[in-house]
Amino acid sequence: MRYSRLKIIFPIGLFVALFLDGSLSNVFAGRLFTYPYTSVLHLVLLWLVFAVFLDDRDDLATGIWAAFVGLVFDWYYTGIIGVYLISLPLIVYLCRQVKPWLDLNFLTLLMVYIINLTIVEAFAYTWYSLCDVVNSGLADFAVYTLGPTIALNLAIFVILYYPVRRLYFSVN
């Protein structure tokens, strides 16, 4: 019974994260996107990483949900189909591959999240460069986008880790 609640809570949390990604980015645009710095919220990515690592049974269809929410994210927020449609399921796949070898604690999950943020942002930068949406150099991307994005999302990770962990373990 408790596990079936997780199958309901996971997609609800995923769509709340999707909504908050866009809404908070819009509300705090003056702070997040001040030239030359850009800080991108990745609450959907955070929710997916939590789902992969905190789900004991590995029964959630996180890969399918990641592809669906990636398509919605691309369609609604970016307008360029493929960036998150490909990168989010890729992250879920990579996380599932490394999960058996990791000791799941706060610092390990923090490091995995940093790596995942870097992969998603680098993938988005490469995709946007190929589509001629971005024309800045790799060094500018690393300093003005990747660094602030990692700093912002790590702060959010630290704030949300224990409440989300508690949520998963109470219904799992």
From TrEMBL:
Keywords: Cell membrane, Cell shape, Membrane, Transmembrane, Transmembrane helix. The keyword Transmembrane helix applies. The keyword Cytoplasm does not apply. It is found in: Cell membrane. Coiled coil: none annotated. It comes from the Bacteria. It is a multi-pass membrane protein. Its main location: membrane. The chain crosses the membrane at residues 35-54, 75-94, 106-129, 141-162. InterPro entries: Cell_shape_determining_MreD. Belongs to the MreD family. This is Rod shape-determining protein MreD. The gene is mreD.
